[in-house]
Amino acid sequence: MALIEIKYFNSFVLKRTVARNARLTQPSDTPSPLRVWNGSFGIPKAIGGFEQSSDIYTDPTTGLELPLWIVEESRIKAGYNNTSTDYGVRAYIVEEEADAVDRFNSLIYSGIFNSRTGINQTNVFSVGEDITRSLSPSDGGIQKLYAEDTNLTIFQESKVSRALIDKDAIYSAEGGGTVTSSNLVIGAIQPYLGNYGMGNHPESFATYGYKKYFVDTYQNTVMRLDQSGLFEISNYGMDAFFRTQIGQLDSAGGKGKIIGGWDIYNKEYVLSIQPSDASLPKSTLSYDDRISGWTSFYSYVPSNIFSVRNNFYTTTGGSVYRHYSQAAQHGNFYGTRTPSSVIFVFNPSPNISKDFLTLNYEGSNGWQVDNIISSETGPGTFTSASDSVSDLSQGNPTTNPTIWSYDQGSYDNFNNVFPAALIPPINHAGFTRKENKYCSNIINSTPASEGEIIFGKQISGIKGFFTTVTMSTDNVTDVGGYKELFAVSSNFNRSNGF
Predict the structure, then answer these.
(1) Which distant-in-sequence residues (6+ apart) come within 8 Å of 477 by Cβ?
(2) Are 158 and 135 spatial neighbours (Cβ–Cβ below 8 Å)?
């Protein structure tokens, strides 16, 4: 009798690298043969092996040639009685019914995580503990959560609520509440007054300090949430604008975007409304709480808006842009320059008809007037958009404005025009400068109306109860430079015609 010494005993796991119904590297119409183990691994058929096969499987992703069968050892380092590999720790509990449930109006939290002590229970959801909080399903799904100090703000589609964190409230019989510490992760949930929510556009959210800004797309309003409650900031002179812009946001069968962010440099909430219909205009504008009003429209359309430290950034096309850079040109966004413009409405003595004769402004050189249009007269024998219009050249404001800027309208007696070297005396076709104030006459270019004997450039100024003036930066004076506009005024006389 001979004794054979066995150095160690081990167990093996035989695994198939591809499914039984998978195909080999053959034409797609050729079925895959039955998989058999490749005998080259060293286990003969006589002791439980398989018939040898030379089939090789080519991975369609990596292109690597792999055997159809592989053998794995189940013990560490293949040593006798060593620790065997297994599937490890299972989940906390196995549900009897593993069907997924979409609880769009509920919150759930796991166990604790403590990196200092090494405790990690983030995969523990104990069904024996009260770890869920639910809100009213009639207010829609939860769109965003925002944690602030020891409170959690919950934004639903049609409601905004707050929940206590690591504390709860005890109420007396009279309804008074007292906050007390407890072991609850999420305490009592209290809704804010008002049926306002975030719709389905959480990307409009921005925060600064204790103020939070967002858009309620169901109510077509822009909201602010602070310690006093909810306010419609879209009502500050812009309710009709937002009613139209937000109302057409998700048109043409798609979902538009509302990008919101906080401008830390100017302390403003910046909002970009981008409808899904490409034929509709996109609008980017800003709101300032210090004046309770919307301060400006911008020509850029960002994909993200955010602030870091004291810098304001936006992104587009995979690139990040820093605004208010000293090295950048003013009015230049994403490599495209757009002139800055301001619209004024002059309406002194609103109950009388007036003749507006001049236009004056205080500020930097380089401002031109694109158009001056008086109040509408309404339909009549001659239908006209306005009673009178001022347009020096009847052309495009970008090349032929109503009133030229100080440099743009400069020329000399030798027919040289700016920016050529002008020879004194220098004349001005638009604004002239007197005591550091820019002034210009308003030249009438209104077509003749019924009963008029003198009209157009034969009379001074334009006539109306009020007039609208659009001013913009020109394209020749310190392009991209810093330009200010302090005050704009107009001299007028009472009209003798009415």
Answers:
(1) 365, 366, 405, 406, 407, 408
(2) no
